[in-house]
Amino acid sequence: MFRWLIAAIALGLATSQALAADPIEIHIGYLGHAGVKTTLSLAEQPADNDGIAGAHLAIEDNNTTGKFLNQHFTLEEVRIKPGDDIAKVAIDLAGRNDYIITDLPADALLKAADALHDRDTLLLNAGAIDDRLREQDCRANIVHVAPTRSMLADALGQYLVWKQWKRWLLVVGSHDPDKLYADALRRAATRFGAKIVQERTFEDTGGARRTDSGVTLIQRQMPVFTQQAPAYDVLVAADESQVFADYLPYRTWDPRPVAGSAGLVPTSWDAAHDQWGAVQIQNRFMKLNMRHMTALDMQAWTAARMIGEATARTNSGDPKKVIAFLKGPNFSVAAFKGTRLTLRDWNLQLRQPILLADGRMVVSVSPQEGFLHQVSELDTLGVDRPETKCKLQ
Description:
Layout: H1 2-20, E1 24-33, H2 52-69, E2 71-80, H3 86-94, E3 99-103, H4 106-115, E4 122-125, E5 142-144, H5 149-162, E6 167-173, H6 176-192, E7 195-202, H7 214-226, E8 234-238, E9 258-260, E10 265-267, H8 278-289, H9 295-314, H10 319-327, E11 343-344, E12 349-350, E13 354-357, E14 362-366
Helix pairs in contact: 2-9, 3-4, 5-6, 9-10
């Protein structure tokens, strides 16, 4: 009994001394581009703090746990402006931070990653959905939190096939991102047994639709654009450039549902998501920011929480140890999606369920029932190990 008491006192003294010591500082950078992307819908215009707000919430969560582990997390935001040297900015930010959450276009992200190739800095991609970043252009110093286009397209494709809506009318925008999304949708159709009965291209001719005659013009244009199509079950739109897709629901010539870039939309997060404890984080985010949480907010939150989780599990401030654990087989992170999320070791993409939302409710969550996989059903979304072109370097 006496020995047990002495041991307890010694443990208490050791704990007190550890807590009294200066906490281990974990510095995280956030590298984004100046300005926000505009949308067709005024109700969906992104806030100036889109993305970074989610990272700030995660820092609070990390520090809640960090109090017990004598760890303290900080976040530094830097925005890229037109004309900035992305490599120089990335190197400067990496000089003060061991981890950088990014919301950058694909080419800019690759420039940042290559500039930091010989450092121990880890980039966590929260914004770019390009498959090539995980495939032929993959980098060993980038972990991808944002889902890929192929993951989003596969999630939608599974649901449409599960619904027996197998005949698709594919409408594609005229910009490069639209074409990339269309490629992913074609792949999903082939993969899951759907048929694209016809493709149509919507040319962006410019012009303002927010005019006194805009609604009348759209109401006349969209039915004409979609008439005389072969028999189809659902119109699938590929319009990442936000030119036309939001004008399609309720305006097609034939009474058919719309999916893809409008109507039923695949996304990593939605303000209507309320399962698996999501209401808790939705409410906390709303209280802090007076707005709803977006997909980019959640992707940035997840990125910062991944660092917090790996730091807590290793109980270390050494970036090499933390990064090795984060990339290792024992890492996982909870993100209010019904399952713990893990990394694909062949391309460092975060496995995750994809929500299918209509703007007011979450209609379904993919992967869908019946789409099986020998390792993880989440690997039915996106490029699987046997298909990958990635050679991490």
